Each structure stands twice: as C-alpha cells, then as structure tokens.
Amino acid sequence: MMAFSKSLGRSAAVSRRFYSSKNTMTLTDNRNGKSYEFPILPAKIGPDVIDIRKLYALTDCFTYDPGFTSTGSCESAITYIDGDIGQLLHRGYPIEQLADNANYLEVCYLLLHGELPNAAQKAEFEGSIMSHTMVHEKLKEFIHGFRPEAHPMAIMVGVVGALSAFYGENLDLHNKEHRTIVAHRLIAKLPTIAAWAYKYSKGEPFVYPRNDLDFAENFLHMMFATPCEDYKVDPVLVSAANKLMILHADHEQNASTSTVRVTGSSGANPYACIAAGIASLWGPAHGGANEAVLNMLRQIGSMENIPKFVLRAKDKNDSFKMMGFGHRVYKNYDPRAKIMSATCHEVLGKLKVQDPLLELAMELERISLSDPYFIDKKLYPNVDFYSGIVLSAMKIPTDMFTVLFAISRTVGWIAHWIESQESPEFKISRPRQLYIGPTPRDFVPLSQRK
Q1: First and final C-alpha spacing in the chain
Q2: Which of 76, 231, 340, 346 has CA 20 to 30 A from 434's CA?
Q3: What is the pLDDT of residues 296-326, one digit of tens each?
Q4: Structure pTM?
Q5: Distance CA 202, CA 72 (A)
Q6: What does DSSP assign to residue 435?
Q7: Can you tell me the distance from the alpha carbon of 357 to that of 441, in angstroms, rounded to the nearest whole number?
C-alpha cells in the first residue's frame, strides 16, 4: 500500500519548470517505508497535476486509472471545464457568451488561434474556409461504392480517411502553413461529405456547396435542396444549426479528442486522425447519445407509458437507462444544455412542430426538473437530450445526428491535433497496464495437450 502526503500551497510565481518544496506531493510505499517526492504542476484554473513521469523508474510501479478519471494526459490551452459549477470555457470565453454573440466560424478561429478575430481576420478566415468546400470529383465514386443503406457515419469514417489519398501528397506535418491548410480543408469539406452521404442514402443527386451562403446555411442547403427547384433555408433552422455547431465545437479531452491525439502521436496523416475521431464519436456513449435519446423515446412510445419507464430508470436492477440525462463531467447543470433548451423551445415554437416523440420529450423534461430522484442525483437533461429534439424538429434524420456532431467537433479535433504536434513534449502515446494473465509457462506440443 502506498500513501500520498500533499505539501499544500500554490504560488503563481512558481514556474512550471521550477518546483519549490511547497509544490510537491510525497508518496510513501508502506511495503518498505520508502518515500518519493513528485512535483505538482500548477494549473491556471482547476485542479493541479501531480507529475508522475518518474514514478515507474523510482518505484517500479504504474498508476491504475481505468477510464482516465483522474489522469491528465497532456497540457492544453484550448478548453476548460469545471463540472462542479457547470462551466465551459473556450480559450477563456464562456460558452454562453460565444453561443449568444458569435457565429460558428468565429469560434473555429478562436479555437485554432487562441483569440477572437478582428473584422479583417474574420473575413479572411471565412473566405479561406469557403474556398475549400468543394471535394475531389473522384470522391463521388468512392461514396457510390457503399451500400445505399450504409450508416452515414460509416461513410464518414471511410471518406474522411480517404482524403489522405487526395490531399496528402507532399504534406509536411512540421510545416505550420501545411497544418493550417489541413485545418481549413477539414472544416470546409466535412459538411459537403456529410450532406452527400445523406443524399446518397436518399437516392438523390448531390448538391454542390454554395459559397455565397454562410457555413450552417450552406450545409442545410446541401442537405435539403434539389436541382429541380430553388430552396430557401429557413433562418430559424440556420440559427439553430449555428448554435448546435458552437455548442459541440470542443469539449476538452473526451473520448474522440483523445483518440485524435493518440492517433496523431504516431505521426499519422491528419485526415486519418480525424477519421479515427469520427469512429470514436460514433459510439452511443459519446456522439451517438442524441440518437439514443430518440430511440429511447420510440421505446417509451406514448405518454401513458412514461411513469412505468421512469420507475424502471430508478430501479438499479433494471437495464433500462434514461438517455440524455446526467453527464460524466458535469455534476451541475450542463451549461450547453441551458442554451440548447432555450433553442429547443424557440425552434418548436416557431416551427409549430407537432410530433408525439417531441411531446414525450417535453414531459420527460418536466419530470426530471421536478422529481426529487432526478434532482438529488443531479440527473438534469443534458445537451444530447435537447439537441436530439431540435435535430428531429429540423427534419434531420436520426442516423445523421452524430454526423452533424462530427461536423461541429472537427475544429476541436484539429485544434487539439495541432496543439499536440506543436508541443515540446510531443511523443507517441503508450499507456501501461495491470497485467492479470498467465505467468511464464512452457509450450506444450499438440499431441500432449488435453
């Protein structure tokens, strides 16, 4: 057994490369009485970090942290979350202010560059993004190689990974300009690929991007327009899509972002790294959660069934789970959910949507915000709950929910990929393990095996 003893006290004047005796933590191995001192890296805000890089060399032990609930895998200056108070900051700016005042591409610029753009920078950045919205014509043939009933996320994983075959020639990962071009291409091309995946599933012709439309409007136009008539995107839908994209742009070291960082640590092509992130996002515990919300509502079926399913959710021995409630990081109300809730009610009100599933969702919201069980356990509706309702009201098919998430999160993935590539501590990721398998044994010839 080992015991930690923390020397308290943090000084803003202490450098990350210099540690006083007050900025350390002592680990005592109770098996032999030996003590080891480890530096504490002070965070700007949030928990400090114990630097255990020399732990194995000193103690012949690893740490054990399944799911990385207490492990910091990197330094990052992009996004900060305080789950206890329900705070989300992008480069220091509260998500509420960004959602109310910025458009999605402004947030993209902020995540990539660290500061909000001025008017000239904004115009130049938006112009660059929109100049990359077209994709190689050969990619149309690639999409046509999938079965028509293929899940759009399967198409996204394959096609985004294939971008490395079209845009990977002479790519120098050590060249900042090359990294910037990759970032702009990915942000610009993901909506085109996503919309084409949808059109393919419908058997409809692909609609090319229009650079005279803004980012969210262009995506919706490619989704729902047809060559045979003019299509005007509803401003209510554009506003809702813009907020959805901002709210999903980045969320610190989540599963898919960590996947992108780990994949990138080997020096892999950045398009392959983003494809890996999309694959991770596809899981129902991550980006597929809002799709799972709609599936849950369909399972409940009708208003009279709600009490029965609420009781099942409260029964720890029942496998049924209320999807879209609670969050692993947020122990308070998810700040994105507050924004999405307002957007949800605004969209439903303006579009005058009549959908039995949405009525079920609104009743579940009412119960969760008034039932002591949900309140005591802090099982508030999260952003996935409201985003699923909004996307359904916007006539986005359920299997496209996670695709829209991937479009939004691409900038976060690429910002973290760039940050990791530029870090002076950049190295290939190599987690350790607690081995519980057989001890060394001799090979047994086939004729002697029982």
Answers
A1: 40
A2: 76
A3: 998 999 899 999 999 999 998 998 988 888 8
A4: 0.89
A5: 44
A6: -
A7: 59
Average pLDDT, the chain: 90
Say which residue, 118 or 381, is predicted with more confidence: 118
What's the farthest any 2 CA atoms get from each other in the chain?
80
Tell me the chain's radius of gyration from C-alpha atoms: 24
Write the pLDDT tens digit of every residue in 91-120. Answer: 999 999 999 999 999 999 999 999 999 999
How far, in Å, CA of 262 to CA of 272, rounded? 12
∠ CA 210-239-234, rounded to 5°: 65
Give counts: helices (H), strands (E), the chain.
Answer: 18, 7
CB 415 within 8 A of CB 253: no
Which tokens is 378 given?
């802090």
How far is residue 209's CA from residue 222's CA, in Å, rounded to a whole number?
Answer: 6
What positions carry a catalytic annotation? 286, 327, 384
Does residue 5 register a pLDDT over 60? no
The number of residues making up the chain comes to: 450
In the three-class reduction of DSSP (H, G, I as helix; E, B as strand; rest coil), residue 289 is classed as helix
Q: What are phi and psi of 134, to 5 degrees?
A: -70, 150
Supply 355's token pair.
């959908």
Is pLDDT of 16 > 60? no
Distance between CA atoms of 287 and 251, rounded to whole angstroms? 12
Cα separation, 345 vs 247, in Å, equals: 16
